[in-house]
Amino acid sequence: MRPNGRGGERRPLTRGPRYDPLMPLYICPNCKQRSVALDGAEGFSDEPVACHSCGFGFLFELMEDYYPGPNTGLVTCDREGRVLAVGRGVYELSGFEETDLIGRDVREGLALKAESDQDPVALSLEWGVRRLGEAMTMRARSGSEKAIVCDLFPAYDDDGGLLVALSPSNES
Ligand SMILES: [Zn+2]
Questions:
Q1: CATH value of 2-168 in 3.40.50.970, 3.30.420.40, 2.40.50.40, 3.30.450.20
Q2: Ligand 1 centre and the CA of 52: distance in Å?
Q3: Helix (H, G, I), strand (E, B) or coil at 56
Q4: Where are the domains of the chain?
Q5: What confidence tier does 47 reach under pLDDT thresholds 50, 70, 90?
């Protein structure tokens, strides 16, 4: 993943033709709109695919379908876990604006801690596997600690990266 989409240079998530016979699934890192097919245009264009619903500059490819909850907020990170984009719902959940978090390590910015002593963000980045239903805590801007559930999705493009879905733990 690269920062793109908001004022910066727009880059596609995947470069060159794709011959993946599977139907690619995408989710908008901003508004969580899922899309299964994108007008058949991928692979034939270097234009990034913007969200049809909110116009956000890029979509995140998922290997398996995922249905975020109504109060889930998405944070897109690079391969080091630094925040590239903060989607709708994160402010409601954390009190942080995008400008508070951009460029910071998501674990540090939100003080994410797993209930186990593991670091699910590092594990997902290192192994390139998704991790669902991680019970974690985060510190909201107000300073209060909140129980949340994290779903982590590694990016499959060459740049790597991670999509972090944060949900209030009472919703899981
Ligand atoms: Zn969108």
A1: 3.30.450.20
A2: 7
A3: coil
A4: 2-168
A5: low
Q: Tell me the pLDDT tens digit for each residue of 3-30.
A: 554 444 445 555 444 445 567 789 999 9
Give 62's contacts (C-beta < 8 A, 6+ positions apart).
25, 26, 27, 153
Buried (b) or exposed (e) across 56-76, using 16+ Cβ within 10 A? Answer: bbbbbbbeeebebeeebbbbb
Centroid of ligand 1 to alpha carbon of 102 (angstroms): 18
Q: List, for residues 89-142, the tens digit of each pLDDT value.
A: 999 999 999 999 999 999 999 999 998 889 999 999 999 999 999 999 999 999
- Enclosing H/E stretch for 163: strand 162-168
The chain-wide mean pLDDT, for the chain, equals 85
Cβ-contact 166, 23 below 8 angstroms = no
What is the CA(35)–ligand 1 centre distance, in A? 10
Spatial separation of the C-alpha atoms in residues 107 and 77, rounded to whole Å = 10
112: tokens are: 């994410």
